[in-house]
Amino acid sequence: xxxxxxxxxxxxxxxxxxxxxxxxxxxxxxxxxxxxxxxxxxxxxxxxxxxxxxxxxxxxxxxxxxxxxxxxxxxxxxxxxxxxxxxxxxxxxxxxxxxxxxxxxxxxxxxxxxxxxxxxxxxxxxxxxxxxxxxxxxxxxxxxxxxxxxxxxxxxxxxxxxxxxxxxxxxxxxxxxxxxxxxxxxxxxxxxxxxxxxxxxxxxxxxxxxxxxxxxxxxxxxxxxxxxxxxxxxxxxxxxxxxxxxxxxxxxxxxxxxxxxx
Length: 262
Hints:
By secondary structure, this protein is an alpha/beta fold. It has 9 helices and 8 strands. Helix 2 (47-54) links the parallel strand 2 (36-39) and strand 3 (60-64). The termini are close together. Helix 3 crosses helix 4, helix 6 (164-172) runs parallel beside helix 7 (189-197) and helix 8 (227-238) crosses helix 9 (242-257). An 8-stranded parallel sheet has the order 1-2-3-4-5-6-7-8. A divalent metal cation 1 binds at residues 7, 9, 97, 208. Belongs to the metallo-dependent hydrolases superfamily. TatD-type hydrolase family. This is TatD DNase family protein. GO terms for molecular function: DNA nuclease activity; hydrolase activity, acting on ester bonds; metal ion binding.
């Protein structure tokens, strides 16, 4: 049986106090039944170090992009060729994470949008799916995705924190929807409503480690092993066996990112 953590920041975990190294994180995840991992990038400067950390693990894939929180006046003129170079590396399978964030960095809205559009175009050009981050921006983000042809490369709405209406719009674009520990939170009823609505064959599960640890690990640093708790919660919401949910979401991951699990 496979279970994929479709979004974990392995380079951001606490290797001073919690984990020995990436191998330790992966071993703990394997003990929990988690078999594969996708580690997204957040900017072009830190990506090489992240890639070096994980590239030798056959069960780990990477993505590269510029996170909307990391767009500023100093890097607004990032070079397409720099991102292309990283996207061409072995085991780099997606453009992500990218999108729009109007909660943490609303002041850079006018910089975020053109950067996001350029990354959509590069995803289409390189035929790599998008990993989309939205905060306070979901509807505008999806309007841009539709206008700029994101359907042609597909991808996933990561760490989905919206409701049924936004889920419907994402599905209309052909995008998968990834549920994180938020689906287990007391105040996450809108996400649970979306989870009930989204067809199982369009779902992924993730941790977004080291953030958003699911119940019963709430308040602790998140890690890939904990995606099993999220998967169990989603299986309960969908009223399907846990093993079936793992099988379906693993198959969805393969389809979304055009990779084979082994």
